[in-house]
Amino acid sequence: MAERAAVIGIGQTKYARCIPLSIDGLVREAALRALEDAELTFADIDAIVIGKAPDALEGVMMPELSLADALCAVGKPIHRVHTAGSVGASTAISAVTLVESGMYDTVLTVGYEKQSDGNFMWALSGGRSGGHGAGGSFAPWIRDYIRRSDAPEHIGWKVAVKDRLNGLKNPYAHLHLEDISIEKVKESPMLWDPLHFLESCPSSDGAAAMVVTNAAGTKRAPRPPAWVLAHAKRTEFTVFPGRDPVKPAAGVDCAEALYKKAGITDPRRQIDCAELYVPFSWFEPMWLEGHLICEEGEGWKMTDSGATEIGGDFPVNMSGGVLCSNAIGASGMVRCLEAVNQVRGTAGDYQVDGARVALGHAYGGASNYFAMWIVSSDPNPSFD
Amino acid sequence: MAEEIAIVALAQTPSCRSYPDTEPSLIMGLVNQILAETELDRHEIDFTIAGSSDYLSGSPFSFIANVDGFGAWPPVYESHVEMDGAWALFEAYVRLQCGDIDLALIAGSGKSSPGTPRDIFPLQADPYVHAPLGLDPVSVAGLQARALLDAGKATERDFAEVVSRSRRDALSNPYAQVAKDISVEALLQEPYFASPLRKHDLPPISDGAAVVLIARGKRARELCDKPVWIRGIDHRIESHYLGLRDLKDSPSSSLAARNLGLDAGSLDVAELCVRYSPEEIVLRQALGLSDRTRINPSGGPLCGHPVMATGLIRVVEVARRIRGGEAGCGLAHAASGPALQQNLLCIMEGDA
Predict the structure, then answer these.
(1) Which residue of B64, B67, B95, B129 is the best one to mutate when testing the A interface, meaning the one whose CB has the most A CBs within 10 A?
(2) pLDDT of res. A1
């Protein structure tokens, strides 16, 4: 790498069903908060990378054009990434690449979605009517996971409750379900068997932003930087005979490449906490296995034992995760951002004590797009 | 110290009004052509990145199917920009500058045939002020043309000269969709379409794709005899609000040229993303191009405009001429947005 990259500023909007701001206002609010955190202004930014899921969600085509003014991009490079649900993490990785290349010193990256502007179920069904939504695509694979791993059905409920309890500690979270309980999840309507209503993510408006800079930039940063130790992306075909959608090879490859680059040999022990993209409860155990954090068949046991709670040995989705807020184009970036939040020690009520190394993760499409990063408070942490 | 990066293989489809098969199949043919030419296996490619638009195909997430065109088994390290493939090339170039990988495959593809571009592109406008007005790119190009005429910076004859030359040049371009030997006088006899623009001042509606393979220094020399070195890529954007812009100028193009240290006098060839004939007049001036530089010998986008590939095709056209020895140094330009709102420049050079 020509340069090392680190995050020196993070910013988010509140996530909500409908935020009464223009798209311009939404992205600008997140961007300004990230700049404020880094004590920089738009004038300090050399390039901008934005990401969001399909343009059809808001009905604005190639929005980098109309957002150029709101993001003070005039006279600068701005480009737009779109890799389905993984886009937020892909966008953050793209921004890191710009810094690592040595071509740009300080880069602003923004991910957003304003789902209240469009019909999300329609868009997720490829623009056709009669779609069964994302949950309908994933439910059969979740069933297959349950069959293969012999997991008891309460695991999904448990994830749903844990993430909602974590979300109560995060002022930005869309859902603040004070009275969440296993009973409530279990009794909520069945949407896509085995997924109940309360095991599914909400549909949110919101934006997230980060300021990424090089080593020289971190020296001027007012708050501790989060060093990007490694990032990885992998994609595989959507459909083909013999594909394993429960534990996709792309997810395994992505994790292997990521850990190798970061120097991690025992992820469960060497990573302090993770923000995983869990839009439906069962994806917590599925990604724990799918990204080699534990052995196959052991993911649900980690969940069941409380290991993934704040205070457990491998906390997952301390912020409340996608189950509490899902502005799709932002969600992957939020996972990366919340990993930063942890290693900088700024996560407030959902801070994991002494978190030094954290994983941010997103997936998309038919579980065939993966983007992940590992950040640390230490630019060169030793793993033993 | 910047890494030396070169284009080592390139391929494009002809532009056509309606390609009967799918977008992935457009890409697949080109990818296979490049792999065959370089004798590379698919999994030797370190990084793949594509540019395309969901809106053109009328189907959210349509880019996912395009992965089928690259081949993604075993899984690949891959990304996608919802932009012209020229911006995919930008990101790939940046990625190779990191110095840890050698080979990147870049695609740009688009099928405008399933829809009506003039109905779709107004959606590029901000949804609050411009979009409700239904301001489409043709109308904006008309405003730009009118501004040039009113300022005495161009005449309708100048527009027709751009078209006449482009259409004639396209006669020798096997990928062109529109080609004709037609005089300026004959063009000026045509009726207005969006005054002061005539139909021929507009690009055709096209389907098509382009793919290029780039490599770092040593690997580039291993893979081909005549690598085309990318001497720099820069892109800049302008305000979205027409009232804040001088449509007679392209300050973002000038800025990109300055950032790259472009010596316009050294350019043998320039392929400019001239989607509307007046844009050539604006760009020539903004980039300081002289008569020494051959502009759009392919005929340019006025003779074939597969949106999302059009910019990358400019790179392909310049690289092909450098590779063929017709040019030593060339410039490719890509544009996005109405009236050249966003511009990308890529300077290329052969071995001395």
Answers:
(1) B64
(2) 61
CB–CB contacts below 8 A, A to B:
187
A1 CA: distance to closest CA in chain B (Å)? 5
Whole-angstrom Cα distance, residue B47 to residue B32?
16
d(CA A316, CA B90): 35
Q: B98 CB near a chain A CB, below 8 Å?
A: yes
Q: Could you report how far apart the first and last alpha carbons of chain B are, in Å?
A: 20
Contact B143, B247 (CB under 8 A): yes
Q: How far, in Å, CA of A333 to CA of A350, rounded?
A: 18
B 262-301 residues with CB < 8 A to A? none
Q: How many CA atoms lie within 13 A of B291 on its CB side?
A: 0
Q: Are A82 and A52 in contact (CB under 8 A)?
A: yes
CA–CA separation, B243 vs B338, rounded Å? 13
Least Cα distance to A275 among A89, A104, A64, A47 occurs for A89
Q: Which residues of A touch B108 (CB under 8 A)?
A: none
* Cβ atoms of residues A304 and A63 within 8 Å: no
For the record, the structure tokens of A45 come out as 């930014």
Q: What is the three-class DSSP state of B63?
A: helix
Closest CA to B9 of B83, B103, B97, B146: B103
pLDDT on residue A121: 76
Chosen from A82, A120, A239, A254 to mutate, greatest number of chain B CBs within 10 A:
A82
- Closest among B124, B287, B310 to B204, alpha carbons compared: B310
Contact of B77 with chain A, judged by CB distance below 8 Å, is answered with yes
The pLDDT assigned to A24 comes to 98
Q: Which residues of chain A have pLDDT under 50?
A: none
Query: Is B240–A66 a contact, with Cβ atoms under 8 angstroms apart?
Result: yes
Q: DSSP state, A74?
A: B
Phi, psi of B213 (to 5 degrees): -115, 130
Residue of chain A whose Cα is closest to the Cα of B251: A75
Q: Is B213 left (phi over 0), alpha (psi -120 to 50) or beta?
A: beta
Tell how far CA B4 is from the center of its chain.
Answer: 23
Distance from CA of B3 to the nearest CA of A (A): 9
CA distances to A112, A233, B110 from B54, rounded to whole Å, are 17, 21, 9
Torsion of CA A144, A149, A151, A153, to 10 degrees: 0
A235, burial (CB in 10 Å: exposed 0-12, middle 13-18, buried 19+): buried
Q: Are A37 and A221 in contact (CB under 8 A)?
A: no
- How many Cα neighbours within 13 Å face the side chain of B117? 21
Cis peptide before B196 (omega within 30 of 0): yes
* Cα distance between residue A182 and residue A164, in whole Å: 11
Structure tokens at B309: 């590939």
Note the pLDDT of residue A127.
67
Contact A249 B75 (CB under 8 A): yes
Tokens standing for residue A143: 């069933």
Contact by Cβ (8 Å): A207, A111 = yes
DSSP character at residue A353: T
Using DSSP's 3-state secondary structure scheme, residue A288 falls into helix
Cα(A273)–Cα(A375) distance, rounded to whole angstroms?
A: 11
- Which residues are B110's β-sheet partners? B208
Q: Which residues of chain B make contact with A67, given a CB cutoff of 8 A?
A: 240
pLDDT at A303: 98
How far A63 CA sits from the closest chain B CA (Å)?
7
* Residue that the structure tokens 């195909």 belong to: B57
Q: Which of A184, A214, A207, A182 is nearest to A337 (CA)?
A: A207
Say how far apart CA B112 and CA B26 lie, in whole Å. Answer: 13
Which residues does chain B have with pLDDT short of 50?
none
Six-digit token pair at A109? 């990256």
